[in-house]
Write a structure and sequence with these properties.
The protein is an alpha+beta fold. Helix content is 23%, strand content 20%. It binds protoporphyrin IX containing FE.
């Protein structure tokens, strides 16, 4: 399997709307979560993290500190930061 591409933070930041795609980072990975936005149990709040890091939001909403949440996230990985 070919390695995933490496993206700059500037490239990630271009993707912060449903029109342009919704990308987020977690640790050193990049995720395209566009398709997940409408399925998110926490609704549109997820868009607050669009184009940036999940960590500050997940620190506030500790409901994400569960294995099954990381499993969902892993399905949307598109690259490395
Ligand atoms: C709940 C996933 C980003 C706010 C949840 C739950 C999942 C989830 C699976 C349900 C957890 C459970 O009850 O077991 C994700 C994923 C995210 C993401 C995969 C990123 C790709 C965010 C962000 C915010 C947020 C950035 C806030 C800015 C919330 C809130 C809930 C929630 C408030 C609780 C909803 C409720 O139970 O009423 N999220 N989330 N989430 N999420 Fe997220």
């Amino acid at each position: 399997k070919a390695p995933l591409p490496v993206f700059s933070q500037a490239e990630v930041t271009k993707h912060r709307s449903l029109e342009d795609g919704v990308w987020v980072t977690y640790k050193d990975s990049v995720y395209d979560i566009t398709e997940f936005v409408s399925m998110h149990p926490g609704g549109d709040k997820i868009l607050l993290a669009a184009g940036g890091a999940l960590e500050p939001f997940w620190a506030l909403y500790a409901v994400h500190n569960q294995e099954h949440v990381l499993e969902i996230l892993s399905e949307y990985k598109v690259g490395e930061l």
